[in-house]
Amino acid sequence: MKILYLEATQDTPKVMLNKKEGVFEISGRSILEDTESFYNPVMEWLEQYRQEPSPTTLFSFKFKYFNSSTSKIIYNIFDVLKDIPGIQVEWCYHKDDDDILEAGQEFEEELEMKFLYKEI
Fold first, then answer.
1. Which residue range or ranges hold the SiaC family regulatory phosphoprotein domain (predicted)?
2. How, if at all, do strands 4-6 and 14-18 pair?
3. Full residue range of the structural domain in which residue 60 is found
4. Between β-strands 57-66 and 23-30, what pairing exists: parallel, antiparallel or unpaired?
5. What is the CATH classification number for the domain harbouring 92?
6. How many structural domains is the chain composed of?
7. Burial state string for 51-68 with b = 16 or more CB within 10 A and e = fewer than 16
8. Which of 20, 25, 50, 93 would you label with 84, given CA atoms 20 to 30 Å apart?
């Protein structure tokens, strides 16, 4: 599979999806108006990865901030990820950022997935 890399901007997160190196990460801020057009390539890549995943997958989410339309997309990403055998989700948050931590806990509970939490 080809690597999917999207450089971060002021309004969009960095996205790195690299099956060969085992690097799966979304990090930064996501405050887009049109989240679907930005995240469509991510969803398509993950759908393809789900067909032939690696034996183990660690996917790190390192958001500084995301808006409500991004929250819906994140939910959709997790909906794909939960079907991948051996998936591990690492939800990273800054020490005093209770909002990001609580968002991760809500996703974990709603989707009945187990997250690893990492304070950064």
1. 6-116
2. antiparallel
3. 4-119
4. parallel
5. 3.30.750
6. 1
7. eebeeebebbbbbeebee
8. 93
